[in-house]
């Protein structure tokens, strides 16, 4: 690789070069938080995930194991997915005991991931291109789907992948490895993502990429070559995945097994490739991903990090996993794709027949590495061959075109509509329901008020509960009932009891019914 020429390190220059990244973070955080607050006020509940993770955060805030009654009596959520890093939510809940706090934390995690990638884009492409790329990134389809589907553990993986991608492009291999390591504590399948990242690092080592100079750490760490470091990272990711799915999850799961093995939807005689591409929506997801990588990103080994996530999603029979417009699993694809795009741009800037200037953040053997966070490098595109310039331009334009073409199909577009974020017409009725349930009482309910009841109550879900709770809440408009809700919550709860409990109806208002156990 080559690198850009350096401008004088003046305070004003540093300030101006930091503006694209700051703008991306602020705009992204503001837009996502406005959406989340509006969604919360309007009482839109796309799934039970927010309530589940709220119970987890509440347990961690009490220094307890993450037992989540919504999943089942005594259910340890670490046996569902392996995400011990979510212990960081405990202090958040202690300070702000509301599920809305988790939504805001997710919004901030996604937004802050724009900082390192936009700073790298500034060094490679200049301020204008970096600004539009940063805004596209932070408002991308993958992030919008994650925000709309509410909190999920993968939010913690996004900034780690963003900083790891920048370290990879800049040839800071050890930094890249350190950013990647915590991914195995966020979700079990991310061990396979770390495996692919290790192979990408090793490939760069085998291709003769410069070794990062270091003067810290033990001797074996300082002597570790790029290729060997990559192999070590790959082995670490594979070992973490196997340990988690074969030992830790079965030990913690009530079923004694890893509960998320693949189930194909195409029949036993369907080939692997046919199953992977068996639906038009899968091809649409691939198209959106290729557009995000600007097509040229496919030439980067970093792009291989998307393969584990795409594979388990496309092989699953759950159609929610396939799409590009919603759900949260697309979020981790975005920093990978943009990182691959910027890696391709950096290598185009180092085209073979370009003059040998230096690449920002990539050290020349035997020299001291420049500070990769110093935003004072300006790309020398005038010295780059014309074909490389056109390829880089394509890489920048395609993501922007993808963003513009999908703009009206994505959740954040609803913010532009009149009345967005207004309280739900059912807010008053919901408040009546919750006011009648004493703090500390146990409640069985459907999706409608599931997350809203978590702060002050022990909450169970109607689809998994086998407990006679103190109260039962039925929301006639909840999707949990498949369009056929009980007409009498008390009669339904009494009939469901396995221990002869009897319930009486105490409120029927605004589509909500509240039943109280009387015996």
Fold and architecture overview:
The chain is mainly α and 519 residues long. The protein has helices spanning 11-41, 49-61, 89-95, 99-112, 114-125, 127-138, 141-148, 157-169, 173-180, 190-206, 219-223, 226-252, 272-276, 280-292, 307-315, 333-349, 386-406, 427-435, 450-453, 489-496; strands at residues 5-6, 377-378, 442-445, 458-461, 471-475, 503-509, 512-517. The longest helix is centred in the N-terminal third of the chain and has 31 residues, at 11-41. Residues 1-7, 263-269 and 354-379 have low confidence and may be disordered.
Strand order of the largest sheet: 4-3-5-7-6
Largest sheet: 5 strands, mixed
**Fraction of helical residues:** 40-55%
Instruction: Tell me the overall shape.
Output: globular
Q: Cα-atom Rg, whole angstroms?
A: 25 Å
What is the number of beta strands? 7
Low-pLDDT segments, ≥5 res: 1-7, 263-269, 354-379
Average pLDDT, all residues = 85
